[in-house]
């Protein structure tokens, strides 16, 4: 015997907002890079691998921003392969 299951409730819009996460995350990586660079070159306290890791995080965030814009524009255009946020 099969029972009818109701669909899960929709997530609130604040949980679906991708842009604030990408922008804030990228800014935090940039801030971390600046602070770690100061700590490495000025104070000689920080291992350089931390600084380069923060730089990689920032660069990946900067790659993610146009990808996010491209995906949202494809969704607005109605592209079949675009992910849609309900």
From TrEMBL:
Transmembrane segments: 21-43, 49-70
A Pfam match: DUF2530
InterPro entries the UniProt entry points to: DUF2530
Keywords from the named record: Membrane, Transmembrane, Transmembrane helix
Protein name: DUF2530 domain-containing protein
Protein's organism: Actinophytocola xanthii
